[in-house]
Amino acid sequence: MTEIVGNHDLLLVTLDTLRHDVAQELAAAGRIPNLARHLPGGTWERRHAPGSFTYASHQAMFAGFLPTPAAPGPHPRLFAARFAGSESTATGTFVYDTPDLVSGLAAVGYRTVCVGGVGFFNKQGPLGSVLPGMFQESHWEPEFGVASPTSFEAQVACVEKVVADLPADQPLFLFVNVAALHQPNWFHLPGATKEAGDTRESHAAALEYVDRHMGRLLAAASARRPCLAIVCSDHGTAYGEDGYTGHRIGHDVVWTVPYAHFFVDEAR
């Protein structure tokens, strides 16, 4: 990262609430071709989330603690605040002298932009303003939120405008929180009804919906210079496993998440 920061634009996408098992199944079945073609080996890496719900997980990620590989460590991190005794700060780690990654990148010249999705990014109250308030520029509209069947399309359109309005020599750190996987997601599954509610199948259908528009996002993010993209989930969610529903619980389907990072250079 010490060679990448300053020379690449950076994109962090959190597919909010996406389960690892569902993501892996869809990649193996060829149901998410736009994402799968960028995944190393065509598969997601299995990692452990840094939190069991959106707010906690993003606070950790913005501090440099991305999801941790699901194997014994320590595992070198891409980003880290300068911290005495850190066992996961390695030679290639981008180290910053600010409290969080967002301000650390701003300090070396990046324009930091947030395109929010779920309620913790809606700026409609003090709590929903904490995470977007870390960025120099933040965007949220009801069309980006969990209740919108076209949320990701609306977010991508916003990203395209952000990139188009940015000076060519201005490096960009772009963060997108994708709300489409989060409940309610029943409307992404053909034939589903509100009364039947969300299911593992509608969760999968929501990922297919996101994949249909992922190419536009990656093209926009790499339109001006090569881009390092980090695409992951912040936590999973339960659909009845062991009697559990939802997240903010200590179940394996919540703590186990898909992760990938890769370079995108589609504009060149």
Short description:
With 268 residues, the chain is an alpha/beta fold. It has helices at residues 20-28, 33-36, 54-62, 101-107, 127-130, 151-165, 200-221, 252-255; strands at 9-15, 45-48, 68-69, 79-81, 94-96, 111-115, 137-139, 172-178, 227-232, 238-239, 245-246, 256-264.
List keywords for this structure.
268 residues, alpha/beta, 12 strands, 20% strand
List the helices and strands and how they pair.
Elements: E1 9-15, H1 20-28, H2 33-36, E2 45-48, H3 54-62, E3 68-69, E4 79-81, E5 94-96, H4 101-107, E6 111-115, H5 127-130, E7 137-139, H6 151-165, E8 172-178, H7 200-221, E9 227-232, E10 238-239, E11 245-246, H8 252-255, E12 256-264
Parallel strand pairs: 1-8, 1-9, 4-5, 6-7, 6-8
Antiparallel strand pairs: 2-3, 2-12, 9-12, 10-11
Helix pairs in contact: 6-7
